């Protein structure tokens, strides 16, 4: 019979392989991170599963970061038990809502969706596209070449060179006449940005666009946040930023690129599906679901 236990620093290390690499560091300091719950399943004292969740600062909202059961132990109710117990633990800590997001198209996706349905989570809805490719191929797209040249009234500059006055101008305008979607405000993505390909766009001396990127590995850059002022979008200026970033990435001999497109940005979603697709290695999708906790 399997058993479930909440992990601490001394017991968590042997469960690291059961979560994503990006979350493994969390298991090394659980005792000091009150905002993390790691729930383990074991069978005959051997690790067989893990559910990991993080709690937001206000203690009322949680995110399930990962849930995994050893393949040989699946279809035995362990996943259901882990998720159910995790919900109980979150509720006991004052959380009223939990959310979960996942990538579709994987071999484990059907089992995860059955588990969510069984535990009465909401029907999953699309959240964003995940685009992956090689910069050598992407840069060959005809519109990348077409928009690589920009009129003299525009200039592209390294984002690290933005001035304090320009920062203040963006913030003040956003406060009085909001013009940037909340999820595309650049300053929230500046930590550990990739300096080679993180760029800004000026029009008539004013900052009107940006691309903030991050290095995921020695050979992969994530294009994290890109935006151009709405009245300039139809002119393809955001493609100019992509083209310049791709050129700089190619010069730096960094092969792979990945970026996401939230489904709320419908025009970019359509552009990816109908124009980018032939030049990408893959287009994936993430979905999201949530549950109100008792």
Task: Give a topology summary.
Layout: E1 2-6, H1 9-12, E2 36-43, E3 46-55, E4 61-69, H2 78-92, E5 97-103, H3 109-118, E6 125-134, H4 135-138, H5 142-146, E7 154-158, H6 164-176, E8 199-203, E9 206-217, E10 220-228, H7 230-233, H8 237-251, E11 256-262, H9 266-276, E12 282-292
Parallel strand pairs: 4-5, 10-11
Antiparallel strand pairs: 1-2, 2-3, 3-4, 5-12, 6-11, 6-12, 7-8, 8-9, 9-10
Give a verbal description of the structure.
This protein is α+β, with helices and mostly antiparallel strands and 294 residues long. It has two domains: 2-121, Gcn5-related N-acetyltransferase (GNAT) (Aminopeptidase, 3-Layer(aba) Sandwich); 131-286, Gcn5-related N-acetyltransferase (GNAT) (Aminopeptidase). Helices cover 28% and strands 33% of the residues. It contains nine helices and twelve strands. The longest helix is centred in the first third of the chain and has 15 residues, at 78-92. The chain is elongated, with a radius of gyration of 22 Å. The chain starts with a strand and ends with a strand.
